[in-house]
């Protein structure tokens, strides 16, 4: 375990702060007999980008960070035209499946790998997978309610909505925190994910901690007691936009970029907190990051924290057949964690701070 790791906050920027510099963080076993991933380049090696050849990288997984990854990869390609990176926003569940199958060069997930996932991977490849955090972000309640520009939801209110117990907008549990607002008697249309989703994992992880009546468990896909399903954060956002009276959970940047209004919600300290990168970063203050970087904070006790916040991880192989792909991935990750911070801030994500980025880069450097 590392020493206390914090997200630093100020008025302009929220960042994930340092890990202990004294502990070597490694997800790769010491044995040199590491199985080679079939994902990275097949039998023919890619020419090194510096030699004038083109290196292609393919990834798939979480839709949560997709706007940032696509921005990063496009910006990196402009500066390094010999490296071409494609990323499919297919959801964390499908991303982990493709990563395990070796059909992509990297995966992406908003849920840390389970012990069973690691064992399956190790049985196939001879070593544990590598997961590294690339950014943080918040899961928000975005809504479409005409005439209601600000919405506050107590725990009783949002738990009741997702549990199917609160079904109209003028329910007393909602009205109690929104004095002065004209809440209609129309039905609430809850929108949730229909695919295997790390966003769903983070959301249900919070519901389990915050909602005593939540019985559907914590997973990338659950049996929802109520609502309409949509694929990806993209699909949820679109469904909310086109459905009057809708409310659903999505990643902050999707709501921001699509002009959706987001509810302020009650945190564990009883404070109503609006979702902002600074409030999301506060959820991680004082938390200890494990050696595999799989930090989860389902319900922060920080009174200033927005309570539904998560890291999101890249999934990497411990060895690549193609050295050009390995080196390109190393370069892309290093660039994203340094030069890519401005894009993360611009889109509303929480960029990784320099000290933690160093630990991530050290981990990536162990890849063979």
UniProtKB/TrEMBL annotation:
<dbReference type="GO" id="GO:0042301">
    <property type="term" value="F:phosphate ion binding"/>
</dbReference>
<dbReference type="GO" id="GO:0043190">
    <property type="term" value="C:ATP-binding cassette (ABC) transporter complex"/>
</dbReference>
<dbReference type="Pfam" id="PF12849">
    <property type="entry name" value="PBP_like_2"/>
</dbReference>
<keyword id="KW-0732">Signal</keyword>
<dbReference type="InterPro" id="IPR050962">
    <property type="entry name" value="Phosphate-bind_PstS"/>
</dbReference>
<feature type="region of interest" description="Disordered">
    <location>
        <begin position="32"/>
        <end position="52"/>
    </location>
</feature>
<comment type="similarity">
    <text>Belongs to the PstS family.</text>
</comment>
<feature type="domain" description="PBP">
    <location>
        <begin position="49"/>
        <end position="339"/>
    </location>
</feature>
<feature type="signal peptide">
    <location>
        <begin position="1"/>
        <end position="26"/>
    </location>
</feature>
<keyword id="KW-0813">Transport</keyword>
<dbReference type="InterPro" id="IPR005673">
    <property type="entry name" value="ABC_phos-bd_PstS"/>
</dbReference>
<feature type="compositionally biased region" description="Low complexity">
    <location>
        <begin position="35"/>
        <end position="49"/>
    </location>
</feature>
<protein>
    <recommendedName>
        <fullName>Phosphate-binding protein</fullName>
    </recommendedName>
</protein>
<dbReference type="InterPro" id="IPR024370">
    <property type="entry name" value="PBP_domain"/>
</dbReference>
<dbReference type="GO" id="GO:0035435">
    <property type="term" value="P:phosphate ion transmembrane transport"/>
</dbReference>
<keyword id="KW-0592">Phosphate transport</keyword>
């Amino acid at each position: 375990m590392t020493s206390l790791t914090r997200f630093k906050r100020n008025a302009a920027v929220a960042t994930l702060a340092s890990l202990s510099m004294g502990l070597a963080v490694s997800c790769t076993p010491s044995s040199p007999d590491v199985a080679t991933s079939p994902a990275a380049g097949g039998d023919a090696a890619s020419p090194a980008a510096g030699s004038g050849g083109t290196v292609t990288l393919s990834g798939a997984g979480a839709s949560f960070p997709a706007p940032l990854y696509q921005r990063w990869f496009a910006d990196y390609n402009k500066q390094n035209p010999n490296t071409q990176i494609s990323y499919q926003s297919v959801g964390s569940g499908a991303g982990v499946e493709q990563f395990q199958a070796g059909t992509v060069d990297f995966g992406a997930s908003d849920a840390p790998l389970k012990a069973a996932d690691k064992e399956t991977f190790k049985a196939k490849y001879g070593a544990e997978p590598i997961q590294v955090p690339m950014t943080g972000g918040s899961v928000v309640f975005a809504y479409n309610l005409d005439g209601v520009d600000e919405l506050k939801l107590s725990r009783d209110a949002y738990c009741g909505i997702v549990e199917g117990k609160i079904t109209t907008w003028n329910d007393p549990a909602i009205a109690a925190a929104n004095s002065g607002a004209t809440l209609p008697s129309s039905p609430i249309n809850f929108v949730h994910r229909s695919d295997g989703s790390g966003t769903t994992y983070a959301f249900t992880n919070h519901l389990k901690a915050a909602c005593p009546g939540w019985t559907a468990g914590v997973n990338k896909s659950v049996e929802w007691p109520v609502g309409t399903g949509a694929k990806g954060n993209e699909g949820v956002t679109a469904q909310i936009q086109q459905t009057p009276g809708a409310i659903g959970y999505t990643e902050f940047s999707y709501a921001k970029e699509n002009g959706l209004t987001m509810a302020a919600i009650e945190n564990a300290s009883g404070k109503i907190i609006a979702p902002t990168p600074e409030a999301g970063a506060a959820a991680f203050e004082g938390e200890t990051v494990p050696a595999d970087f799989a930090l989860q904070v389902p319900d922060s006790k920080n009174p200033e924290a927005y309570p539904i916040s998560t890291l999101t991880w890249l999934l990497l192989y411990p060895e690549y057949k193609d050295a050009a792909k390995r080196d390109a991935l190393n370069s892309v990750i290093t660039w994203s964690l340094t030069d890519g911070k401005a894009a993360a801030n611009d889109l509303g994500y929480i960029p990784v701070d320099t000290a933690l980025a160093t630990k991530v880069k050290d981990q990536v450097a162990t890849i063979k």
